[in-house]
Specification:
Layout: E1 4-5, H1 11-20, H2 27-37, H3 51-60, E2 61-62, E3 67-73, E4 80-85, E5 91-99, E6 102-106, E7 110-111, H4 121-124, E8 129-130, H5 133-147, E9 153-156, H6 166-177, E10 189-193, H7 197-206, E11 211-215, H8 221-227, H9 230-233, H10 236-250, E12 254-260, H11 268-278, E13 283-289, H12 304-314, E14 319-321, H13 335-346
Parallel strand pairs: 1-2, 6-9, 9-10, 10-11, 11-12, 12-13, 13-14
Antiparallel strand pairs: 3-4, 4-5, 5-6, 7-8
Bound molecules: S-adenosyl-L-homocysteine.
């Protein structure tokens, strides 16, 4: 019988499993504390459980760990990027970033991505599969263990499209924030999506405290469809309709991300159109200089982001400019995994 991945179980599920095995329900909380607070993954070390229960756990459950395949540390700003190897040999990336107020971690939600955004390295290596809740969670636990840092912010902005792995991402968020476990406030979590409209409506119903970030990156449908194929399925107007609904339903402000790409979406006309689109929406705009991806020639001219921000400001839209972190270690998501996947193909599938 295949063992159950215990780190992917939320507390009610673990309670149900234990009760079905004739154990008391409260044991689940004890186990949850070992796993999510003390981060002890060896059932034999869970000393307040009976020997019989420990044997039951060993026979029926497993913890799928992640292994550090590569660790790159930026000498400019202390950003650390991990390439993690999953139990089935696939790779994902996780980035630990240092800010004045603490550390933030950027986690992946899928191995690869189906969305095909033209400027994104994750699209280049192709899609393999979605991550299990445990595999998203363990990126945090393993990074905290490896670095000795306690993270104070989590962003779902690594490889993959979180809303294309909706159920597992929501479960991950439940496990992460459970007060009997890691007890991490969702107020310090940001979830970034390219704009899968039906799932934005679904997410609104859950009324989570997280910050929803929308990768907008263009102000007209023609340009957006060119760089983000998802726009052909859900255009800007449908997307903004979903955003308005989300704000109404949750009372939470949305962040729009806009990578300023010279010659693509950086003109005054783009800024003016963007300000018209966003007028009246309770939102914040985050401008990003485009991260260079080797296979693409997209770039951001030196004053383009500041000019764009100024133009938006004149029209009443406040925008912040995202600081570029880890520029010396290719911290843009997807670049390490793409290289590892490419090396494996070149080596005929052997280890990178
Ligand atoms: N799939 C999700 C989350 C992953 S990407 C999404 O699309 O939002 C996280 C953010 O990085 C998105 O805003 C994405 O558009 C942006 N991004 C991807 N590649 C980039 C690049 N080369 N330069 C700047 N931003 C990039």
């Amino acid at each position: 019988m295949e063992k159950t991945d215990i780190m992917s179980l939320d507390l009610p599920e673990l309670e149900a499993r234990l009760e079905a095995a004739g154990e008391k329900k409260f044991r689940a909380k004890q186990i949850y504390k070992w796993l999510h607070v003390k981060r002890i993954f060896d059932f034999d070390k869970m000393t307040d459980l009976s020997v019989q229960l420990r044997e039951h756990l060993k026979d029926n459950f497993c913890v799928n760990g992640l292994f550090v395949q590569k660790k790159l540390e930026s000498s400019i700003d202390n950003t650390v990027k991990y390439l993690y190897r999953l139990s089935d040999g696939n790779y994902v990336e996780t980035v630990l970033m240092e800010y004045s107020y603490g550390h933030s971690i950027c986690v992946s939600t899928q191995v690869g991505c189906k969305m095909g955004c033209r400027f994104c390295a994750s699209a280049i290596a192709g899609f393999v599969r979605s991550l299990e809740p445990s595999e998203i969670l363990m990126q945090i636990y393993e990074t905290e263990r490896n670095s000795g840092v306690k993270v104070s912010g989590v962003v779902l902005m690594g490889i993959g499209e979180p809303l294309d792995n909706f159920d597992n991402v929501v479960k991950f968020l439940r496990i992460l924030s459970d007060s009997s476990g890691n007890n991490f406030s969702l107020r310090h979590v940001s979830l970034s999506t390219c704009g899968i409209v039906p799932r934005i409506y679904d997410l609104a119903e859950l009324k989570l405290q997280l910050t929803l970030c929308i990768s907008l990156h263009a102000s007209d449908n023609e340009a957006r469809s060119e760089i983000m194929p998802v726009n052909r399925a859900y255009n800007i107007q449908e997307l903004l309709g979903a955003c308005r609904h989300y704000i109404d339903r949750t009372g939470r402000r949305i962040t729009f991300e806009y990578a300023v790409i010279s010659g693509v979406n950086s003109s005054d006309k783009d800024a003016d159109r963007l300000s018209d689109l966003l007028r009246g929406i309770n939102c914040h705009v985050n401008l990003i200089p485009v991260n260079k991806v080797r296979e693409r020639d997209y770039h951001t001219a030196s004053s383009a982001v500041a000019d764009f921000a100024k133009r938006l400001g004149k029209r009443g839209i406040n925008a912040t400019v995202r600081r570029t972190l880890g520029s010396d270690i290719e911290a843009a998501c997807g670049q390490l995994r793409r290289d590892a996947a490419k090396r494996e193909t070149e080596n005929g599938g052997a280890d990178a």
